[in-house]
Amino acid sequence: MRLGELIAVARECKGWTLRDLERASGVSNPLISQIETGKVKDPGFFTVVRLLDALGVSLDRAASAYRRKLDVLREAGVFKPRAEPRKEAERAVNKIMRKHRPALKKALLESHATPKDGER
Predict the structure, then answer these.
(1) What pLDDT, in 10s, does the model give residues 46-89?
(2) Distance between CA atoms of 45 and 91, rounded to whole angstroms?
(3) 86 and 71, same structural domain?
(4) Do 94 and 57 fall into the same domain?
(5) pTM higher than the cut 0.70
């Protein structure tokens, strides 16, 4: 379910017009209409929060609708993320480690060296 669809359904369930939602959220009714129809795909975080808050829909509820859509797309083999975020992070760390191994090893050895007499 798209964000616009979620907002439209929630608004209609409350029996509200676009103008009612405009009054409750402070978001202009033309913008609400464009979000609902998909003409505006990324209205901004604060706009979304204001709309969902006025409709009584939690951010968690909106996110779970999106997660369900992703799950369906994954099962159908349509949505294939390029890599797991954790794997990407591990690759980046490994690359840095390979590049800076001598300096890292030296710093590690120096940090664990015991002070000699007179260096305290």
Answers:
(1) 999 999 999 998 888 888 877 777 777 777 776 666 656 666 66
(2) 31
(3) no
(4) no
(5) no
Q: Which residue's entry shows tokens 């001598």?
A: 102
Q: Tell me the pLDDT tens digit for each residue of 17-45.
A: 999 999 999 999 999 999 999 999 889 89
Count of structural domains, the chain: 2
Confidence band for 107, pLDDT divided at 50, 70 and 90: low
Do both 87 and 50 map to the same domain?
no
Half-sphere exposure of 57 (CA within 13 A, CB side): 25
Q: Is 120 part of a structural domain of the chain?
A: no
Domain span at residue 24 reads 3-75
Contact 104, 97 (CB under 8 A): yes
Between residues 14 and 117, which one has the greater pLDDT? 14
3-state secondary structure of 87: helix
